[in-house]
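Issue: ligand-bound run for nicotinamide-adenine-dinucleotide - logging full I/O for the record.

Environment: standard queue, default settings, no custom constraints.

Inputs:
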Amino acid sequence: MTPDMSVAVVGLGYVGLPLAIAFAEAGLQVQGIDASDERIATLAARHSPVDDISDERLGRALDGSLRLATQRDAAVEDADAVFVCVPTPINATKDPDLGPVLAAATFLCDRVRPGQLLVLQSTTYPGTTAGPFRAVIEGGGLVAGTDFDLAYAPERVNPGDPASAARAVPRLVGGLTPGATTRAAALLRRINDRVVELSSPDAAELAKLLENVFRNVNIAFVNQLALLCERMDLDVWEVIDAASTKPFGFMRFTPGPGVGGHCIPVDPYYLSWRAREFDFVDRFVELAGDINLAMPRHVVDLAADALNDRGRALNGARVGIVGVAFKPDVRDDRNSPAAAVIAGLAARGAEVAFHDPHVPAFTDADGVARDGMPLEGLLDWAELVLVLVAHRAVDWDLVYGRAALVVDTVNSSTGRGTGDRQVLRLGAGWSHASTGR
Ligand SMILES: NC(=O)c1ccc[n+]([C@@H]2O[C@H](COP(=O)([O-])OP(=O)(O)OC[C@H]3O[C@@H](n4cnc5c(N)ncnc54)[C@H](O)[C@@H]3O)[C@@H](O)[C@H]2O)c1
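Outputs:
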């Protein structure tokens, strides 16, 4: 089948690579462009750096209509539409860093040609597409809405959950003009069953932030409930399981050592920063950030409490971490709360080692890099095992069968752990052999 349309995807990470492959699988000609030559070389070697995209699927796309290009050999002008999927991080003071988005716009401004459709897909604050992104591109001389179409279409991919990237997941799109919205929506319908058209890029940008702030606020809420349960000698996991039996009006969130990944700890600050420009303090965002950022310190305190129970100090103790990725069953360790936990333990004099079946090496929040250990070696070495992520690939019976002392922050111990006061659980206190708790 000869491709009837051509798209370029700028930024081939967790979001851009699945998008490029989806378009290639839908029969479009696709140019995958990245600023990192290393990333292009990795992909050209048919190695997928992204969970949920297998090497085989990448290989099939490369055998089909997906072509890779560095920024030097990209031919953006050949594309009918260009999608921008570059990172949107925050800086040290937690303000938005539009550097990569504006760098991509700078790359495009001399290359955009009349009649093209440009779609920003990175998560960002309302006003980015129609404001700074548009301004930099128009610096090349063409005018959005007149010479080229411009739209914003956020992504809902959830690493580790392949269903989140399926056709059935609806997509949102808002264009600078009604024509841009219609055009971008028609293109996205080649890879998505349902595309919801919004009145503006700003509305689509805010809808995406609402989705992620919703998660951050609710995670903070259950994290706070976990702290309360520890004081009340109640089991937060039992309480959440009980509430989750309600078939309507309740959505299950679970506590943990903090939030991580590219989105949940970052995106809320895009909203609060933008809100301040309107003399508005988004107190939910600030409060949720405060609570979630404090969780790694609380976990360090739990480790100290567990050792104290054995008459031991954290200072000088050997602490073995299980799981450093930002969530279960992924290799993505960006902004993982494990970084702050490990740095916090080390700052209080502990020796720290880790095992993660998906992450071979990990750098803590103080910049100290460590290689992972095999699980059995870690269990033999550690006097305290601290569970931060419940990967399915970990042999949990081995962990709880062998470790004498465990701090469990993610409820991996339910149904395991036999000894009295063997396991100190976040949000629940010590396990008791007599009650099974
Ligand atoms: N990871 C997720 O689960 C997820 C989900 C929804 C939305 N998002 C959003 O999508 C955007 C991209 O996130 P990601 O997770 O795919 O990031 P990523 O770090 O996995 O990938 C980004 C890619 O862009 C490349 N890049 C950086 N600057 C560039 C530039 N100026 N020109 C060309 N390429 C450039 C990088 O080399 C990298 O390969 C972010 O705004 C993020 O918030 C991410």
